[in-house]
Design brief:
By secondary structure, the chain is α+β, with helices and mostly antiparallel strands. It has one domain: 3-methyladenine DNA Glycosylase, Chain A, CATH 3.10.300. 13% of the residues lie in helices and 25% in strands. Strands 1, 2, 3, 4, 5, 6, 7, 8 and 9 form a 9-stranded mixed sheet that branches. Strand 4 and strand 5 form a beta hairpin. Helix 2 crosses helix 3. It is globular. The structure holds a DNA duplex (13 and 13 nucleotides).
Length: 217
DNA sequence: TTTTAGATCGTCT
DNA sequence: GACGATCTAAAAA
């Protein structure tokens, strides 16, 4: 399934697009441990993915952007798989998803955290001089900053430059739990759609949503 | 160590 | 006009 060449450094499509035709719940173990790269004029930053969150399609997942159908913002989710869905939130953060399932079906995997394995200096120049290695791409907003991803990357094909995705294979050693930051239905133990690699310092800490932390009036 | 508030703007109602 | 698939600094415990 993986077209591994002798010059792995130059390859930018070391994965089978068919893999992403499936539900994100099945794709997640393959994305964990995989390495995503992005080139820019300044150089390349590569991140080994250690934490993801699955979001299902129309009517299946109250916490998903696609839940209420296609809009201008989420249209990339409805497009072909193995493309990047980037959105802007909280007035200051970008988040990146890998689109799953065939063209016309909306679902994806949110990249929540990872370990910078290439271009650490460039990543730090984007994040700040005082940020420790483990925190460079820890958290969805931090990951996009470290890689230099913004709205201009929305809809990018991950098998084409400036992106590269190296799927290393099934990661059998992983844990799952409730998603973070989701309000109301979809944010509870009902949906164990968050996946991460155990004992990884680059996995973001679980935080309750502020509204859920408040005493019930 | 844990919790809180504030920043800030594109998108949808 | 309201509200986020969040982050950080700073206060509280």
């Amino acid at each position: 399934m993986t077209a591994t060449g002798s010059n792995g450094e130059e390859m930018n499509a070391t994965f089978n697009v068919e893999l992403f035709n499936r539900s994100p719940l099945l794709v997640a173990p393959y994305l964990l441990g995989s390495v995503i790269s992005r080139d820019s004029d300044e150089g390349r930053v590569s991140v080994r993915i250690t934490e993801v969150e699955a979001y299902l399609g129309v009517g299946e997942d109250p916490g998903a952007h696609a839940h209420r159908g296609k809009t201008r913002r989420n249209s990339t989710l409805f497009g072909p798989p193995a493309h990047l869905y980037v959105y802007f939130t909280y007035g200051m953060h970008h988040c990146a998803n890998v689109v799953c399932q065939p063209d016309g079906t909306a679902s994806g995997l949110l990249l929540r955290g990872g370990e910078v394995v290439e271009g650490i200096e460039l990543a730090r120049s984007r994040r700040g001089p005082r940020v420790s290695d483990r925190n460079l791409a820890r958290g969805p907003g931090c990951l996009t900053v470290a890689m230099g991803i913004d709205l201009a990357d929305n809809g990018s094909d991950l098998s084409k430059l400036p992106f590269a995705l190296n799927v290393t294979g099934d990661t059998s050693d992983y844990l799952s739990g409730p998603r973070t930051g989701i309000n109301g239905p979809g944010g509870t133990e009902e949906y164990l759609f968050r996946f991460w690699i155990p004992n990884e310092p680059t996995v973001s800490a679980y935080k309750r949503h502020p509204k859920l932390a408040r005493p019930i009036a």
